């Protein structure tokens, strides 16, 4: 472990540590006996996830919802926020300086890029025994697939937040604008372009809302099944290779984005639009179509109506390509994950804290808030009205999604079942999302050849740097799209050949391989 820390220090020498990371004194307070159980004190790092409520908070540790959570669980939390946009960089810095909180939130499995090899290095403790003793709710509710994502060498190393439906991202449309055009819901790529052109004629500033790195703006890569992501491998003529090597379909996808750029159907500056500006443009009524997690639909619609009262949002089937299929990439079974640092004295109580997250009391608190403050009870039933103003919606979203650390994040069934609109959204999951989505051959742990070559290594939902640069230039018309095979050759020459060799060997040997779910 010391050798590993030394290597990380050499890599990021001089880098600053995560702002706000503190080490609270965990020693028991001396003094007389008390009937009040001692609070469980622990520090925990959490990605901000670009949540407005979180990023605008002057001190989240003093937030009223954190304080209520501490009161209900008899804990004293020291939340260390990790900036969303710099998550991987800041995580590596944290491990390099060895200033590691008691609990570290990861993005998925044990081998994520942000974990920087920390699990293999013994930074975190195995949790199997602690879960058996203190985490029965966790073991009963969390599905097997999610536990498998946080298992290393036969041991469980993290507590996962989970998804029961891997199809999470969806194509959203301003249905009120579509109705104005007189067009039907589009299905094919060409039909989508027709709708976007109609939006453009209506004067919509962003017919299709773009975003940097094509993140949450990648529906047309899905149509052609060429997502350039970590999980997107396929077997072609006995060789396992990334799907972006399908040059014919990749060039069709890039040509679609180039057409959108040339005709003004996507913002000319899409490559620099960050998550905050992306959302602000949508909520100010300046976008006609975009991609976002389906479970946020009702909250975003309420916020949008504050500026555009006539707006109506709807989730529609994503554009389909030549094979008649489409959709966003399928998520892994584990979304956020929580690792406990080796040597943490109160690890058993920390597991109890997470176990409580799946209790009925926790579900009521995170879903509806505080009795007689944010909801009421009448005849034994909860009466809850979702907020309408933007700030209150941000607060609700923070409580239900950010602060509720372990749950099924597919959607909030408690809130959705209370209204017709909510039940309609559940139906969207059961009909539209259940029938779309792209997946590929996956490898866990991550292929060594990718770990050794970060320039050619994709993230979970963004292309590797060596590809992304060319993708943007091609959409902007600064490089010919017909040169994509040369881009593939560049990727191969920089270590891609080793990636394919290793992937094919592991595939043939059935070593750490997960096959596509759809």
From TrEMBL:
Keyword terms of this UniProt record: Cell membrane, Lipoprotein, Membrane, Palmitate, Signal
Protein name per UniProt: ABC transporter substrate-binding protein
Origin: domain of life: Bacteria
InterPro entries: Bact_solute-bd_prot1 (IPR050490), SBP (IPR006059)
Signal peptide boundaries: 1-19
Family annotation (Pfam families): SBP_bac_1 (PF01547)
Annotated transmembrane regions: none
